[in-house]
Amino acid sequence: MKKVLAMILVLCLVLSLCACGSSDTEEKSGSDNQTTTDTKKEEAPKTNTDNASGVGTTLAQAEDEEEVLVMEDKDEINILTNGALVDGKFPETVTLKVECYDRDGDTPANDNMYTDYIKKQALDRYNIAVEYVPVPRWTEVDQINNLLAAQEAPDICYTYDYATIQAYSDMDGVNDLSEYLTDDYKGLFANLWNWLGSAGLLAHRDPDTGAIYAIEGKRAEYYRTATFIRQDWLDKLGLAKPTTAEEFENCLIAFRDNAETLLGADASKMVPFSLATDAGWRASTLIESFMDPDITDKELYINGFDERHYTQNGTKDAVKLLNKWYNEGLIWKDFALYADGDATEGDMQKAGYVGAMICNYDIPFRDGENSINYQLTQLVGPEAKFVAVDTFKDKNGGYNKYAYTTTGSDRKIFMPKTNDKVLASFLFLNMITDPEVINYLQLGEEGITYTKNADGSVNIIAADADHVANTINSQYNIDYTMTCNGLHLLDPEATIKSKAISYANVDPADVAEAIRVADTDAKFAPVVNVGVIEAEAGLGNTLSELRNAGYCKSITASEADFETVWNDCMNQYLTAGGQAIMDERAEAWQRVLGDKTMY
What is the mean pLDDT of the chain? Predict the structure, then answer.
């Protein structure tokens, strides 16, 4: 009878809501979740929607177009939680232990103004008492393993290493969260669903059993790579910013042929285009322009063991163009000789010898007075700098490129089997994902930890002797905003402006333009979950080395030998496990998704 009565109450509530109509434009008082209006508009900075495939508009649109959810009725909350909550709170205080990374900062990771704020929010909203458990950041995998083995792990844990979660879930050491990740609980955990969506909350659902042992945090800053070119060199030679691969090539030729004009006595040090041993990354915008902008998720997944696109269709043609440029003296001739971490290339860029490069969108702006653009202004003149350009068009006339996958590459949040307070844990995660909470944790208190400019952007105040207690222990306090990695303010435009002014000694307009370029026509590769791919185990380093070697050897080969070198290198990669991975991925896709081509 109790079940029947509960069902009747829910039905009456639904009918009542339908009769009254829903309101997405009002924030009602007394809401336990305090979800603000039109949350989707606050998801992420806007991007260009004028692309052929129609993707890359916003983070929310890149995923599931989830409707904005609001939980407003406390009676409904109590029905869903079988009476565990009274007026939206636990009648007796529930204590939760929550992991936080310890980075050896100036203030204790588990005791500062931000943890005090979180504890007050959790207690006021849900009557949850929070105890933070510090875990050393750089040995977090070992430490979490030790805590799990000893059955002493916090109630809420996070790690970048899903293998650890998988190992302990196989031993029944991790809670299956699927019961709380159904439509019934969407309203109760509205902040989680609005921010993470099914892409994050269901990313690790076992396709065979339906079990979910972890949810996935999301990167708020998804911009990845951009193409950069020397603005002062373009101006000196009377060239416009290139908008196509042909125009870009003509700029490189002009740099090479006018080395004395541009570098004077250092003309022999001219490098029209700079590259590195990780050529799949450092030529990403070119390679991705050769890929089909309408590629199916199936093809992208089967051929996509990593983000360097080595086995994707179109990559070979892009590398063949790089090979042509190399043999024409347009690419740094020694790029394949220097391993990752070597400072030689960076030194050339700062000395003013390089004309163009492809790299992370903020590489020219990093490190303050040691940044590439600042060093150029000091050595060459105030007009010398790298600027971002979209210059490699795809077959549809857009600028096909891939942003960081917002889910799949961040912290995985899980609850050990020793946690018998799963409902309280989800309520805590819902609270920590509230946009207002994220905003406070990322900024602190105005006038103490940040100042606001007239355009809405913010400046972070550096910690000093008077404000040591207010120090943010991780950039934007991502160790506390565990579902959000990166700057995500309430106002998306303010987020972009704040990011732009966060780089010292460079023009914020150049940073904002680099973000815009990296974001234009950007796609988000889906996080495909079709079960464990056994063939991938232990092959990451081996295949990465073969991939890098294949790129470098193919680019530096003579034009006559390109086909032979490319095929030989690819065969080595496939024989070493690349083909087995693609075959197993194809089989897994067919087993789980059948003839579907989109995930």
Answer: 87
Q: Which amino acid is residue 195, in one-letter code?
A: W
Judge whether 416 and 157 are in contact, CB under 8 Å: yes
Query: Domain 225-402+501-532 adopts which CATH fold?
Result: D-Maltodextrin-Binding Protein; domain 2 (3.40.190)
231, two tokens? 């603005």
Amino acid 282 reads: R
Report CA-CA distances (Å) from 36 to 10, 41, 436: 24, 11, 9
Q: Are 122 and 130 in contact (CB under 8 A)?
A: yes
User: 80-221+406-488 maps to which CATH number?
Assistant: 3.40.190.10
State the DSSP code for 577.
I
Model pTM score: 0.79
Phi-psi region of 97 (alpha: psi -120 to 50; beta: other; left: phi over 0): beta
What are the pLDDT digits (tens) for 428-444?
Answer: 999 999 999 999 999 99
Same topology for domains 80-221+406-488 and 225-402+501-532, yes or no? yes
Task: Please state, in angstroms and rounded to a whole number, the distance separating the CA atoms of residues 270 and 257.
Answer: 10
- Residue 45 is predicted with a pLDDT of 31
Nearest to 555 by CA among 345, 275, 319: 319
Instruction: Assign 3-state DSSP to the chain and report helix, strand, coil percentages, each to 5.
Output: 45, 10, 40
Long-range contacts of residues 530-534, Cβ cutoff 8 Å, at least 24 apart: 530/207, 530/585, 530/588, 530/589, 530/591, 530/592, 530/593, 531/206, 531/207, 531/208, 531/588, 531/591, 531/592, 532/166, 533/581, 533/584, 533/585, 533/588, 534/584
- What is the rounded CA–CA span in Å between residue 500 and residue 511? 5
Is 50's pLDDT higher than 80? no
Query: In the prediction, which pLDDT does 51 show?
Result: 31
Statement: residue 253 has pLDDT above 80: yes
Q: What is the structure's pLDDT at 71? A: 60
Residue bearing tokens 């946690």:
419
Q: What tokens does 386 get?
A: 């790298």
pLDDT of residue 54: 27
Structure confidence at residue 76 (pLDDT) = 67
Confidence (pLDDT) at 75: 67
CA dist., res. 126 & res. 191, Å (int) = 15
Look at residue 466 in the predicted model and tell me its pLDDT.
57
End-to-end CA distance of the chain: 42
Task: Decide: 490 and 42 in contact? Cβ < 8 Å.
Answer: yes
Tokens linked to 22? 């829903």
CB atoms within 10 A of CB 167: 14
* Calpha distance 529→209 (Å, rounded): 13
Band of the pLDDT at 72, cuts 50, 70, 90?
A: low
Structural domain spans, the chain: 80-221+406-488, 225-402+501-532
The conformational region for residue 233 under phi > 0 = left, psi -120 to 50 = alpha, else beta, is alpha
Give tens-digit pLDDT for 512-531: 999 999 999 999 898 898 98
Q: Are strands 128-136 and 94-102 parallel, antiparallel or unpaired?
A: parallel
Closest CA to 533 of 294, 263, 207: 207
